[in-house]
Every structure is written in structure tokens, then in C-alpha cells.
């Protein structure tokens, strides 16, 4: 893989030598009033970006463009793809990479790390409470009917006690910041957060694209994520040297590449429902040597599909009887079933209160201002000001079920007004925030594109925030939608020591 990438880069560079080109320059780059991760408002380079900036401006325009094209070809040759489903047909695409990294300085990252640890600790306590003692509901901090009406609340999980008391083992928390430079949590992803394979491969590509910069810049590594993930999965098992598997819905799932990639990187088996069976009170895996007991399942299947005997009886991708084995403590699941209740975007609005209730602390990273449409005053405000707001369905993801008011048509506004009136519980709204931007290579120059950040957090023997994450980019000019399924791409995220 690396040899092919280097050869392609070398060939492109040789061609550029026969076609003289001026050095690449950020001289015409405009911040345009947005918070820019690389440049101050007067176009001075932020300190963390200086080594990168100085190296890039030593390259010719053709050299930099050839490196961008080589990275794109490498993604395709490595098969790093995802599926987009539209009108019943699946389309396989690469997630585009822009080779200009997003750089976060140490002090800034340390605060984000503290805030994410605080949030995960509180959410884990919340999920455990919801399915057990329900103190937070009895005390009226979170309305009981809000929980019980959530699509992701699973009564079958009442009384569950997951191994080591951990529910949310792997989390991808989406962060943004606007014009005031303050980081905010946009949403929590505690069911089956995806994208970590792109984080890892983006770093590998950056190592090959800018080896000289990385060699002289103190960037914290992310390549040990599979090792940390495996250690976390082993930690939640009761047996020594546990047998760990990754459970995938199958090759047609949009994130199948990631499932197979992580299994391969951890050195564990990738299985689907056909490979597993409940027998003799245990989950067992079919092998060429017979059945083997499975101790830990990293599931990449939504809660309601994992066991057709308990949840969706029509599920063909689950394992019948799995939940019974889980309840008896004979297999560990990551993430634990039921964690999705904290993914509900209406519950998100209560997280600051959740943090205060369980930890007696104010949130280190605030939420985005959120209007809860089930509350009459908030609903009235949303209906009257929908043109200026972002409206989201409570349990949708991937950029679906969302209205960006300033960019939508009057017909779209009217449609969402009717949806909200019909089912106010299912909607929240937030101000339209001009996300921060990072320069991207567009044709032969740099233009600003809006970004968010998805750090990954592992909860095993302590809470471990991976130093970086996936920076997602809205590659369409002016777009605020960063999801890959909606035309977004990715950047490598450098966290400095």
C-alpha cells in the first residue's frame, strides 16, 4: 500500500518538474469573518500551524496538488469506502480526504479531554440510573414521559447490570465551534459510533504526505487505537485471555469496511449472525475446529436487531437468545444494549442538568442552545422562527431528518412546521451556527471549509480520550453539513504535545 502511494507521488512530482510552477501560497486565503482554525482574523498564522505552514509554502503548487491527488488515489486503492443508500440502491464511495490537517494545541486539547471525560462519566451514570433505580426520573430532573417515549429506551434492559458497571464503552462525541471560538457539544453517539477507521487511515496518509513535517512536530499518536480498543474489550470480560469478536450486520452495511478493518487490526474474528449461536447457556462461534465460547462481542448492530427473541422479531442479523446469556453475565457486549437512550437528541438538551445531578459540576464543554419542541414555549418559538434555525429529528443520524432553515425553501419550512405540530416530541431546534473553518485544497488554491470534530472515547479501566479524532469537512462551498453521506469528507487531526 505504501509503496504504491509513494510511486504515484513520485511520478506526479516528476511531471511537475517539467512544468515549472510557482510555490503554493496562502496569500489569497480569506477567513471571511468565520473562526478559522489556521489563521487569525488578520491572516496571521496560529502558532500551532507555523511548522506546517512554512513547509507547505516551500512546495510548488504542482507538488502540493500532486500530493492531494495521490492521497485520493491511495484511499481508493485501499478500498476505504462507505455505502450511501438512496432510492433503494447502494452506492459505494470513498470518504474524500483533504491533506491540510486540523491542528489543536495542547492546552486547548487538555480542556476538551477533561470535558469529554466529565460528560461520559455522567452519561454512564444516567443510563445505569434510567434502567435501574431511576432516581433522576423520580426527582423530576429528566421527565419520565420523555424517557419512556424515546424510541431508544428499551424496557427489556430494565434491571441490567453490565460488566464492571460500564454501559458506553465506545463513544464518538461531535464537537463544533462557532465565531466566538468556544467548543460546544453538538451531539452524543453512544450506540455504534463510526468513523474511527477514517481517523486511522487519514493519519497514515498524512505520514506519507508530509513525513518531514510530522517528524519535526510533536503530534500525539492515534495509531494505537486498535490496541486500546482490544484492551478495553478484554477488560470487561470476566475470563482471562477472553475470546473477542466483532459482530457486523454484513457486507452491505454502510460501515462494513470499518468493521473488517478494526477486527483485522485487533487480530480478532469478524463475525455475522450466521457464525454465532447460543448453546448450553453460552454464545458460541462456529469454527473449522468446532464451537468456541465467545466472551466479548463488539457489536456494530443497533440495539433492537441484536436478539430477535427480545427486540425486533424480524431481525435476520441478530443472535437469538443473546440477551439471556448477557443477563446471566456469560458474555459482555460493547456497547451495552440500551445506551441509545442517551443518543436521543431531546435527551441531549438535558445533559447539562444530568452532569449537575450526578457530579455536582457545571459542564466543561457546553451544549449548543437547544429548543425542545415538546415544550410549548419552545415550540412556538421554533414555528415562528424556523427560517433561522436548524431542526433535527430526535433519533435520526447521518444528516438525515434535518432542516437547515436559512438554506431551505419555503416549502421545506412549511413541511417541517407540519411535522413538528404532528409530533413535537420528535423534534429539537438549534440556532444556525457558522462552524469554524480549516483551509482545504480546491483546484490549485486554498479555500475555507466548515468542519466539526468527532473525538473517540474508550471506557474500560478508566476513561481514555484518543488524542485527535475525525475532523469532518463540509466540502461543498458554503455547506454546514459535514456528514459523509451528504457529501462531506475528512481531515487528519493533529493534537500537539
From TrEMBL:
SUPFAM superfamilies: Glutathione synthetase ATP-binding domain-like
InterPro entries linked: ATP-dep_Glu-Cys_Ligase-2 (IPR051680), CP_ATPgrasp_2 (IPR025841), UCP005522 (IPR016450)
Domain Circularly permuted ATP-grasp type as annotated: residue spans: 101-474
Disordered: region residues: 1-23
Pfam annotation, one family: CP_ATPgrasp_2
Ranges annotated as biased composition (Low complexity): 1-22
Protein's UniProt name: Circularly permuted type 2 ATP-grasp protein
Origin organism lineage: Bacteria, Pseudomonadati, Bacteroidota, Cytophagia, Cytophagales
